[in-house]
Design a protein that fits this description.
It is a single chain. The protein folds into four domains: about 110 residues, ABC transporter ATPase like fold (Up-down Bundle), CATH 1.20.1580.10; about 120 residues, Helicase, Ruva Protein, domain 3 (Orthogonal Bundle); about 170 residues, Rossmann fold (3-Layer(aba) Sandwich), CATH 3.40.50; about 90 residues, Up-down Bundle (ABC transporter ATPase like fold), CATH 1.20.1580. It is built from 28 helices and 17 strands. It is α/β, with parallel strands linked by helices. About 40% of the residues are buried.
């Protein structure tokens, strides 16, 4: 164990405290794996020095700079809005040059453009300076220096294209009105940019080569292949720079991201993938004597990749830093120098330190974590009988190699394989495409922010408001923080948000409502001595008892308990929840809407993400209940206890990216442990050897 320094008190934490969480990257279309990992600047520098013919200095190789971006798509790689259909260049802004209903003269958005002060609103678009027109169309989050008095004082400026993309293109089509869909159809034509073939770069940047490859070629390669390309470059002048590039690529591959390419849109990464990109970025930092906090960095990692993640964390530690890891994975806990176990349970029943010491000492304790760490694995040796099968035929998307797989119905199927092997592509994309009866419940599919809560997701918020309204003799809207009941200071958010420009926003509890989000009129009304704020602060079980007389509320809240979210308050904002919590909330919504369990065909993408081992057992019990009622459950998962519990296992691999995309194994878990060609099988056998098998077997 390394020499530990004097411990910090939590009421006096170290000054440098980087937190590396699982928050997904934003929907910025200009952010890629290359930019997020800080590799893009290194590649641009290499090509500016050695690319022939030279395109110029480093900005000339950037799709985010006017000197390097494709002029046709403005560096986006796709043409999503037809400018010629959208703009009447013979007219001025004031005359209605934007051919879209929400930008028509007199509308709110028309006023924002006209009064921004950025361009001459009386000049035809064809006569505007190119830079002014670019700002008008593509500007994002700009603080205006000299807006007209009519412009909203605190508002930032977004150009026409970002406004259209955020307000319409990124919304679910079913949530658009008929008029909006008709207006969009006239101006939208999403296709690969013909000018740059999707590379985002102009002709000069694409023509500049190192050993016959452009920077776009490098960025399009999977990281595991790009490592070999960079290693083969013989350019002594670039040696230190290419060494830094190789180190960063090696680190990305080491955390299970070797299947990604640097031109991958960062907003398409899962929470676990995004966090591992952040880890690699911090490895290149010059910080020392800092305290890093990592929130479940093993999420999404196959056991094969976890030890490489630990190597990276140890490198950060050995550079003179303190590493705090919030984690459930047994291998990560076992590798720790010091463990702090909190509990004994979740929510209001937790928050106390149960244990401090070494991992070996923790395994001998009676805490829930200690019991899970030493619990043997229960291997299902008697799989349940399927009620038939469906076939995924000739799947070729992404890295899949003409894959055909049988999916049994009425049982629990677990899909395994290393990160990037093609699991989600096959079962979360191809399966529902070929068989629309399957519902995919993924960590990224439930969106929401400050105003979205479990009761709004489950569809019981309206009933709760009606119940309070009837008891108080008020209209139900008085019990909505988004309507009459909203606190006038925070507008029903419960917090005051301070915009710090280039830093993350800061949220402080609203003093006027003490974070309840409601105004005094709403808070004065009670139901059985509870205010609406009291009710929304309750856990599912207590809230179900309060609304026991409403059969449309209590059963739906009961699903929160069954999916392992009993510790949440029913009014908790979605933006405080992890990806795993959102996924289980979406599962609760789906199950509460399911009229006939036998018709349920559910695909879950890593449902144990963020779950303690004891909660994994509860989730498996739920799966057994669903299967017992006739449902088909498919879990894409790395957790070895879940794999051992399956009736049927499909292992995809053997590797990631181009080295994966094949079905390595199909069958019961008992046969998987004897499959030498399966990485998953070898690790499951190792876990059984270390922990033993729980008698009696299933």
């Amino acid at each position: 164990m390394p020499q530990a320094h004097e411990p910090h008190r939590l009421d006096r934490p170290p000054r440098r405290l980087p937190v590396v969480d699982q928050r997904r990257f934003t929907g910025n279309a200009r952010s890629t794996v290359g930019t997020a990992s800080d590799l893009a600047p290194l590649l641009r520098l290499a090509f500016s020095r050695a690319g022939r013919p030279s395109a110029g200095f480093t900005p000339a190789y950037s799709f985010n700079d006017p000197t390097g971006m494709c002029p046709c798509c403005e560096g986006l790689g796709v043409v999503d809005i037809d400018l010629e259909a959208l703009l009447d260049r013979s007219k001025s802004l004031r005359e209605g040059a934007i051919r879209f209903p929400t930008f028509a003269p007199g509308t709110y958005r028309w006023k924002r453009l006209v009064h921004s002060g950025l361009v001459d609103a009386d000049l035809a678009l064809s006569e505007l300076p190119p830079d002014d027109l670019r700002t008008l169309l593509y500007g994002e989050g700009l603080r205006l220096a000299n807006p007209d008095p009519e412009y909203p004082a605190t508002s930032k400026f977004d150009g026409v294209m970002p406004r259209l993309r955020n307000s319409y293109l990124r919304r679910t089509p079913s949530r658009l009105t008929d008029d909006e869909r008709e207006a969009l159809a006239a101006v939208v034509t999403r296709r690969t940019c013909p000018g740059c073939a999707g590379t985002r770069l102009n002709e000069a940047a694409r023509a500049s080569l190192i050993d016959g490859r452009s920077i776009a070629d490098w960025s399009a390669l999977p990281i595991v292949e790009l490592r070999h390309v960079v290693a083969s470059v013989a350019a002594p002048a670039l040696a230190p720079l290419l060494t830094a590039v190789r180190d960063r690529l090696d680190a990305l591959d080491a955390v299970g991201l070797g299947h990604l390419s640097l031109d991958r849109d960062s907003s398409t990464l899962s929470g676990g993938e995004a966090q591992r990109v952040k880890i690699v970025r911090h490895l290149g930092s010059a910080l020392s004597d800092a305290c890093y906090v990592f929130d479940e960095p093993s999420t999404g990692l196959h056991p094969h990749d976890v030890h490489r993640l630990l190597d990276l964390l140890n490198r950060l530690r050995d550079a003179g830093n303190t590493i705090l890891v919030v984690e459930h994975h047994p291998a990560v806990i076992a590798a720790a120098d010091h463990v702090i176990d909190l509990g004994p349970r979740a929510g209001a029943l937790g928050g106390a330190v149960q244990f401090e010491g070494t991992p070996a000492e923790l395994r001998r304790t009676g805490t829930p974590t200690g019991r899970v760490l030493r619990a043997p694995i229960r291997l299902r040796r008697h799989p349940r009988t399927a009620r038939g099968t469906v076939t995924i035929a000739h799947a070729r998307a992404h890295n899949l190699r003409d894959v055909t797989a049988e999916v049994p119905l009425g049982v629990l199927t677990v899909v395994t394989g290393v990160a990037g092997s093609g699991k989600s592509t096959l079962f979360a994309s191809e399966l529902p495409r070929q068989h629309p009866g399957f519902t995919v419940v993924a960590q990224a599919s439930l969106r929401g922010g400050l105003r979205s809560t479990p009761v709004t997701v489950l569809g019981v918020a309206g009933t709760i408001r009606e119940t309070f309204g009837r008891a108080a003799g008020l209209h139900p809207s008085w019990f909505s923080p988004n309507a009459r009941g909203a606190c006038p200071v925070c507008k029903g958010k419960g917090v005051i948000i301070t915009d710090l420009a280039f830093l993350n926003d800061v949220q402080t509890t609203c003093d006027a409502c003490a974070g309840t989000r409601f105004n005094p009129t709403a808070l004065a009304a009670t139901l059985r001595s509870h205010t609406i704020a009291d009710a929304l602060a309750m856990g599912p079980a207590k809230a179900a008892a309060l609304f026991a007389g409403r059969p449309d509320v209590a059963p739906r809240l009961g699903w929160l308990e069954r999916v392992g979210l009993g510790y949440l308050s029913i009014g908790q904002s979605l933006d405080t929840m992890s990806g795993g919590e959102r996924q289980r909330l979406q599962l609760a919504r789906h199950l509460s809407d399911l009229r006939d369990p036998r018709s349920g065909r559910i695909v879950l993408d890593e449902p144990t993400a963020g779950l303690h081992g004891a909660d994994v057992d509860r989730l498996l019990a739920l799966f057994d209940d669903l299967v017992g009622e006739g449902a088909t459950v498919i879990a894409i998962e790395h957790n070895q206890r879940v794999v051992a519990h399956a009736d049927h296992v499909v292992d995809i691999g053997p590797g990631a990216g181009m080295h994966g995309g094949e079905v390595v194994f199909q069958g019961p878990p008992e046969a998987l442990i004897d499959c030498d060609s399966s990485v998953t099988g070898r690790y499951l056998r190792k876990a059984l050897d270390e922990l033993g098998e729980s008698p009696p077997s299933l």
